[in-house]
Amino acid sequence: MAISSKDLLSKMRELRMLDNELGEYGRKLVFDIITNGIGNLAKTQERGLANIGFSGSLREGGLSARIFKQNDRFLDNLNREVEVDLEFVLLEIPIEHKSCIMDLKDKKGYVNISIDRELLKNCRYLGWKVSDEDLETHLEVITTNDGFLQPYKLKEAALAKLTYNGTNKVVELLIAAALNKKPKDISIEDIKQDVTKSSIGSDFLLKVHKQPFVAVSFDTVLLFRLPWWPSIADQWKERQRNWPSQTAIDNISSVSYIIAKPSRDGKNERETTELRYAFSHVERNLVDMRKPHQSFVYLVFKVMFYKWIKPIDSDRMTSFIAKTIMFWTCEEFPPDHEFWNDDEQSVIEALSYLFKQMLEAFKSENLPYFFLADVNVIESFSELAESKKEELQTKVSSILMNITSFIPYQIENEMKAGNEILNTIKALYKVFEEIKRNDYSRLLRQPELIPDVFEFFMKEVDFDKIKREAKRIQDQIKNEAKRTESRILNETARVESKIRCEAPRIESQIRNEAPRIESQVRNEAARVESQVRHEAGRVVKKLFRKK
After folding, report:
1. Contact (CB, 8 A) for 19 and 104
2. Residue 305 near residue 318, CB atoms below 8 Å
3. For domain 290-409, is the CATH number 3.40.50.150?
4. Is the Cβ–Cβ distance between 446 and 180 less than 8 Å?
5. What CATH number does domain 5-279+414-450 carry, 1.25.40.10, 3.90.1150.10, 3.30.460.90, 3.40.50.1260?
6. Which of 57, 342, 362, 446 has a C-alpha 20 to 30 A away from that of 291?
7. d(Cα 26, Cα 544) in Å, to the nearest integer?
8. In this predicted model, what pLDDT tens digit does every residue of 76-111 receive, in sequence order?
9. What's the CA gap between 68 and 57, in Å, rounded?
């Protein structure tokens, strides 16, 4: 029995709701981890936290799409991977230092940055707490002898700061509490932290009852903010387009960024000084301008990409290909165009168009970068074996011949896996929220957790710091007591001196006033005596008249 397009897409709409929740609670949880939880970043860099943001599918949607790729690592053969993309803005390069950014003529979009101590100090303006000693040490480590920034060295230095010993034990404890499991039932394994071409990668595998449950990867990219738009990308601002408006373009292109990411040629050169312009902040703005139905089409497109295209070559077939095709399509067809109508047939036609663009790119071995059209996103495609190229083109052609048959329909297992991940995220988020309110009841609910909870909080306590703080308070009390005693003595002396000075004046005043007061008293006494005599005489006369 043939499945209707309506039934196919109703399943995808259920996935869309799940995807929205995964993104929402995923961001909440990671934000809590960064600002209140694991490691010492929140304690040492409180003001700098404002320069950390989300990117990738956790921010833009489509996080659930990767579940559809097969992965034999897990019992259900689904790709239970959650990727968290974070951006750290290290410093802003003032416009008066614009000359320190040098475009590489032979590599469009790539630059060198000449950096010195004064420029590096600008990281403090963004709130990062860095001592003069650290600045000197880092500057020597991350730059060449002639002062050019080396992205790999920069990321290696950052990795050392972001590595926390014993973090996995803390995570195990919190997850055990969240899932109401015993600590022995939870384990964090296959921990890996390294520097990649574009980011600092931190990966781990969560096991429940010794079975792989979910793999989590944190990809942290380091950025430099520029308070201007690079001229090399003016073509994007000025080219003819149907969407978005020129006003919107101007509003989102007042700044730009440079990412610590070298070119393909320099990816294996640890001493490279190549960095690249990055426009992820504009991408996020464009995603936010889409209508919900456009985002739904993109989710389906991305699901199909992960299920059918990515397995052919996981390294080269990145989701950035799907994202780029979607951006070009949105620019051609504005959100209110009938292309994006909210009906089943329009969705099928939109998906067909997207895959046609993919097939054309694979055939020509060229997919222009959305912001720098001269840059080929799939440049590495030329390195593929001919059999792989043919397989990719054949698969996309097959999808185009009968697109509905390639839209996943029986997705109960994928939905189950996604909901299990979502419920774990929600439960862990709830634990963090309780801890923020100083509510540790969930952690103490299980007797098995109490020793680990006690050990965890004892490790978190910095006794030396407590001693230092106690001594500081004690010294402060002593100093304040001395100051108070001194103020009292000074005030007492002042009052005594004033009394001594006032006593003669008061005594003299009393002597001068005494005769006047004495005369006044005598006069008043005489007046009262006269009044009494008068009143007595009047009474006596009255009595005699009555007789």
Report:
1. no
2. no
3. no
4. yes
5. 3.30.460.90
6. 362
7. 114
8. 999 999 999 999 999 999 999 999 999 999 999 999
9. 15
